[in-house]
C-alpha cells in the first residue's frame, strides 16, 4: 500500500526487521550494505518499507531489482519512490508486484531504466 506521495504506508525500523527475519541487527546492516534490502531515513531513523519483508525473508526479487535501479543511477530515495509509484499497467506498484507473478515484469522495467 502507498499513500499519494509514492511512499509506503507502513515502515519498519531496523530492530523490527531483525526480529522479523530472526537475525542479529548486524546482519540487517549487512543486508543493507550488500544491496539486498533498502532503507531510508524518516524522522532521523533508518526505516524499511514493511512490504519488502515477507514473513521471515526479504522479498525474493528485491535484491535484483535494487541492483538494476542502482545501475540505472537511482539513489535509495529514488528507488523507494519508483517502487511505490502506482503503475496501472502492472497494476498497483512495482513493490506490490514483487510478491506475485508480475515480479519478472518489474525486473524487466527496472532493467529498461538503465537504457
Automatic annotation (TrEMBL):
Any GO molecular function: DNA binding
Chain ranges of the DNA-binding protein Rv2175c wHTH domain: 10-52
Keyword DNA-binding: yes
Keywords of the record: DNA-binding
Domain of life assignment: Bacteria
DNA-binding listed as a keyword: yes
Domain Rv2175c C-terminal stretches: 60-114
Pfam families, per the entry: Rv2175c_C, Rv2175c_wHTH
Signal peptide interval: none
Classification via InterPro entries: Rv2175c_C, Rv2175c_wHTH
Name under which the protein is recorded: DNA-binding protein
Native source species: Planosporangium flavigriseum
